[in-house]
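Teaching assistant here, posting this on the class forum so everyone can see the example we discussed in section. The complex has three components, and the goal was to see what a joint structure prediction looks like when all of them are supplied at once.
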Amino acid sequence: MAQEIWWASPSFWRKSAIWVTGLSFVILIFLTFDTVKQITAGSPRVPAYSVINKRIDYVFNTERNFQVPVIGQDEPLFGKMLTEEEAEALVSHGKLTTQAKNCMNCHTLLGNGSYYAPDLTKSWLDPSWGSKEAREQGMVDFLMNPQDRLHNALGRKMPNLGITEDEAKATVAFLKWMSSIDTNGFPANFKPIDQADAPVAAAPATAEPAPEVSAAPAQQ
Amino acid sequence: MIEPVAMANFFTVFFSAAMVIMTGALYALLFAYSRIKHAPRLMSLAYLAYLGLFTSVMTLANAANLFHNTFWTVIVGLMLLGYLLAPHAIWHLCIGTHADEHPADDAQPAKLFQQS
Amino acid sequence: MSALGILTNANLNGGQKLAVKYFTVAIALFGAQVLFGLLAGIQYLNPDFLFGILDFSVNRMLHINAMVVWLLFGFIGSVYWLLEDESGVPVAGLALGNLIFWIFTLAVVVVVLVYLLVQVGPGELKSIWLINEGREYIEAPRWADIGIVVCVLAFFYNVAATFMKGKFTGIAGVLVLDLIALAGLYLAGMYYTPNISMDQHWWWWVIHLWVEATWEVLVGCLMAYGLIKTMGVRRKIVETWLYIEVALMFGSGILGLGHHYFWIGTPEYWFTIGGFFSALEPIPLVAMVVHAVFDAGHHKLKSTNNPALAWIIAQAFGNFFGAGVWGFMHTLPQINLYTHGTQWTASHGHLAFFGAYATMVIAFLYIALQKWRGGVYMSSNLAGAWKWKWAIFLLHLGMIAMVMGLLIAGYEQSQIERAIEGSTWMGYFTAQAHPWFVQGMFWRQIGGWVFAAGFVLLAWDLMTIGKRETRPALVHSEAEGT
């Protein structure tokens, strides 16, 4: 056998493989500790579940150079202020509903999932709900009876998944909470629904044909 | 930290990124071929491919606004240098790992497909 | 020992008898993947098709789950295939392995039936345990998760115990460690949290670290074995290169996890990590190209199994374009902001999964069939060779059509839905109605049909190749040049 060059020997590369793998993994573990801390609910990036008691907006931040969620004044969901525990239970019920109804195999959440239906990351803030007043009930109605709402010229629509009223409300809570997550500006250039306080009793003149069925996202 | 790509530059980004991989592979291919065939003329073609790689990386960096930030500028520098040197390093590794190879050593060739 | 060209288990060792069972189920599930992919594709063109009966979500779930499971069955089968040969001893605990195969297969059937017949459940933990976990790729209900871990552990026992008893080669070492990682990582996907950021953070551990790390290394092990056995390359060289590959794959792959952590609530420093490791992505490809040219120049390769060699070459190209070119095109966060969650991802996913993994498993199926038929001739001038050649052509043609269709759709989506409209529902549907999108989906469906035709031909060829062939396989010790 010819002499072996150390940097081309199996033993050198076996050790290298082990060290590279080990080192990468250790770095990953350290980063994971930090990341998990930063994405635990109740942190600046991922707010506590009781954030659903507040107004949530999505506003351009010049310092960070992208849109960030902004938590505003009290604006309780379905008119009811919840404690942290109640809020968590409600959001959790909503999250379970999104899993049990397999939402992710049509929609994307935070951009992950399937591409047959719109992204839900900021669906709480979507202008298609018409007005901020009609939004909550509109979302519930839509979730419970989506099958005859044609939202587009394509004819694509959401099937009836047997979502109960409680599940629908919980899902709305989950979606509202999700819209408060700091996603580093994803989605970009999003135009949130107008949430400014309208003068009392002013008619929603700008809203699209939005009577009782206002929830159906914009007809095309 | 990042400055998103302007919409006018989408195509440039996709195309130049694809070209980074394509020219990178072409450079590696011509480089290795030139060495194995002892054909120095191919080596100039290999460096021509690297020139293409260089151009692609710079185009990508410009279109993706990478030079607006120190970190991403450093990444671009590392890419240019790393892609230039990688085929050389791998080539040495090939020579090194195959150094003691000669046919008599092939004591354990395939038996798998032989009917026993 | 039996006559050439006859398909019989007498030609196989114990592990290989089990392997061919896994391969059979794998091919059936590949068929299921194609079928449900076609159904889901039709729904893009005609949303009323099976609406309310088999909705897109169900078809799509079955499409991607069938893929994960058939590749997994293919890998497990391949490992059982090489186990006795590599270790030099019979498989330890083969009876357990056989039992586990039947349990695993039964569990897959039950899960599929529940997906098809029950589909969704109420928003309670019970649904996640019994019906569907609702998390992309790992939808299997929790009971099945536990079952999968038990099966993988039993499989791991077979592999580790066999190598302990026999020769513990370099390939064995990498394989055993890789399987520990494979089983361990799956646990990261097995818990419930209301926090979607946390959910997706751990979900990526399973998806990314499986697909872009442990699966790649597993394929590296299979390839290493294949090179030694079918090309007669020396073990020491192959194992050194396996280690080099592990260093490159894990070195760039583990922290490459960063490129999935841009937009899910995780901190901004992942931009840096994702960007850096994205820049490293081409290095393993360059290594592959240089080494392949080097090898080709040194060994006068003469193939003993043409279809397997063709699929291995397809793997090299598929991996290069699918993972390399298609991955790099949209990996930087500066552009990924607009491509994330569009058909771009689908385009990349189709090409990369097919190119890097499906091709490898198919190559292994041909290697297995050759021996299953008693070491039959599979080189040039094979009777009926048009079948495997046309199968490979149609599968690739179909795949390229699908990938290009999705690419054009995704490109349009990234501009209109994402950049201009800012991803509102209205923006989404505006982009979905755009002619580029609609036509992209139309061509994707055509590609799907072509792919399906290729699959049928492939299945037919796998059943018949080498039948009535009387020449024995070429053997490398005499075929080898130099």
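For the discussion questions: The helical segments of chain A are 10-38, 84-100, 132-144, 165-178. The first strand of chain A starts at residue 54 and ends at 61. Think about how each of these relates to the inputs above.
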